[in-house]
Design a protein that fits this description.
Layout: E1 4-6, E2 18-21, E3 31-39, H1 43-54, E4 59-67, E5 80-84, E6 89-91, E7 108-110
Parallel strand pairs: 3-4, 4-5
Antiparallel strand pairs: 1-2, 6-7
Length: 112
């Protein structure tokens, strides 16, 4: 199953979370692996972790393609990381900037 959470929308600064799809399975006593495209501040995943823990999950771990560890604002450990990158805005391959550039076939660093 999956949960869909939107945190950016049309802005580049994270605002309030918007749950567009909630998980349908019972997570009581289960080990949960959350797979994410990019982990930045970690606030969204921290919120999800608390949500699953409140529902009785046995454990919650994270897997991400891209980890921007230096931008972390909360204490969050990511168990599985594809690439660790420095700060900067990435677009392409599903990553967007104000709903643009997500269609690009590769991941690019967006210069100002």
């Amino acid at each position: 199953d999956f949960v869909r959470v939107a945190s950016y929308g049309m802005a580049t600064i994270a605002g309030s979370l918007r749950f567009t799809k909630d998980i349908e399975l019972d997570t009581q006593g289960k080990d949960i692996l959350i797979v994410e495209d990019i982990v930045d501040t970690g606030r969204t995943l921290k919120h999800l972790s608390h949500s699953f823990e409140e529902r009785g999950a046995n454990s919650v771990r994270f897997c991400t393609l891209i980890d921007k560890k230096e931008r972390r604002e909360v204490d969050l450990s990511v168990a599985y990381v594809g690439f660790e990158v420095q700060s900067g805005f990435l677009v392409g391959y599903g990553l967007d900037c104000s709903e643009r550039f997500r269609h690009l076939p590769d991941i690019y660093y967006l210069k100002k």
